[in-house]
Structure formats: structure tokens, C-alpha cells
Amino acid sequence: SQQGEEDPQALSIQEGENATMNCSYKTSINNLQWYRQNSGRGLVHLILIRSNEREKHSGRLRVTLDTSKKSSSLLITASRAADTASYFCATEGAQKLVFGQGTRLTINP
Amino acid sequence: GAVVSQHPSWVICKSGTSVKIECRSLDFQATTMFWYRQFPKQSLMLMATSNEGSKATYEQGVEKDKFLINHASLTLSTLTVTSAHPEDSSFYICSAAGGLDSPLHFGNGTRLTVT
């Protein structure tokens, strides 16, 4: 299965701290994407990093991709209570997007 | 930005009845839409890929006669859960691709409860 694995499964930090989530996958990919899901809602796309890119930034988000290790990380800096959500990595290959298990992030005020 | 509308947001039905869920791309044409299923606190599992004007491609283990998919236009795909049973209770989410190598746009999901 190409499904990614994320760690940690759950992360609880204080507001203002940085949050780092990791994702590993098994097969070759075209790109890797990170999504956010608030409880009971659909997913919102955060950032896409292509297989030939190593790092990408978007506001308080920083994503890295290491294709040799088949892993990616999502860093959220200066976290806010509103960042509380589940975060999923998704790998695209063979015209399908396969999601990891997700990290449930809780930001404590 | 691109918007995908999914309806209904929640539905409760009796065992044995069928339920139809609609997924519309509001401001772009989607030749391909995807249907996912999500159990509580778990990841999204791809059920099928819906292709406009052709038959859907189902993932292994997904019953195509149970989950009927129709993608009759470039802006609408429907998922019909036929003869629903309590074990079909789940959160169903559709998404649409805006183009090659572009992110998916998701609907807000449908919470199905079968009693």
C-alpha cells in the first residue's frame, strides 16, 4: 500500500510553540500534499510539494521533502489555538491521492 | 478559490433504504472526482474514482453494486448507497481535481447514519 504513515498520531502543545508532524510513504510519488481537517468537516489543502522540491514555505507553514528517505515534515510555527485540527499528508501517484493516518494537533491556549 | 459543494451534510436513514449524496464543483469543471470514506478518528479511504462520461473505478474491496457512482456532467457526481445497513454509517467526502498536478478541492462531507 502506498498509504503514508504519520507521526505523532496526536500532538498537544502550548500556543506559540512550534508543531512538527512527520509523514513517511512507501512508493515513488509525483508530489506530496498536506491537508487540514477540522472535526466533522472536509479537508482544506495547505501546501503541495513536488518530488523535485526539497522545501516549501507558505505563511507559518514549512514543508520539507526527502525522497531518498521517503519522508516529509510539516512545521507550523508560532501556533495558534485556531490551528487545532487533524493534519494529513497525501501522496500522489498513479493518478490517485492516498492519505496518511493523520496527526491530531491540539493547541492549548 | 475552487469550491466543491456536497449535499446533504448529514442524513439519517432506515436500514434497507438508499441514500444519494451529491458532489458539485461550483466554479470549475471536474472531469475526475473522488469519493472517500472516513471512520471516526481515522484517515480517508479512497472508495472510487468517478470519471465524467464513463464508469467509475472502484478500489479493491469496495462493492460497486452497493455504492453506485454517477458522473453525468463535468460539475456533478453522485454516490448512492443502496440498501444501506448500519455498518455503512460513516463520513463520506467527495473531492474534485482542478487539473493535473493541482490539489484536490474537498466537499464538507456527508455524515450518514443508518438506523
Write the layout of secondary structure elements.
The complex is a heterodimer of chains A (109) and B (115).
Chain A: E1 5-7, E2 10-14, E3 19-24, E4 31-37, E5 43-50, E6 55-58, E7 61-66, E8 71-76, E9 85-93, E10 96-99, E11 103-108
Parallel strand pairs in A: 2-11
Antiparallel strand pairs in A: 1-3, 3-8, 4-5, 4-9, 6-7, 7-8, 9-10, 9-11
Chain B: E1 4-7, E2 10-13, E3 19-25, E4 32-38, E5 44-51, E6 57-58, E7 67-73, E8 76-81, E9 90-97, E10 104-106, E11 110-114
Structure characterization notes:
The complex is a heterodimer of chains A (109) and B (115). Chain A has no helices and 11 strands. Chain A has 109 residues and is mainly beta. In chain A, the strands form 2 sheets. In chain A, strands 2, 4, 5, 9, 10 and 11 form a 6-stranded mixed β-sheet that branches. In chain A, strands 1-3-8-7-6 form a 5-stranded antiparallel β-sheet, with no helix packed on it. In chain A, strand 6 and strand 7 form a beta hairpin. The mean pLDDT of chain A is 91. Chain B is built from no helices and 11 strands. Chain B is globular. In chain B, a hairpin with a 6-residue loop joins strand 9 and strand 10. Chain B has 115 residues and is mainly β. The A-B interface holds A 3, 30-31, 33, 35, 40-45, 48, 50, 88, 92, 95-102, 104 and B 4, 6, 32, 34, 36, 41-44, 46, 49, 91, 93, 95, 101-109, 111.
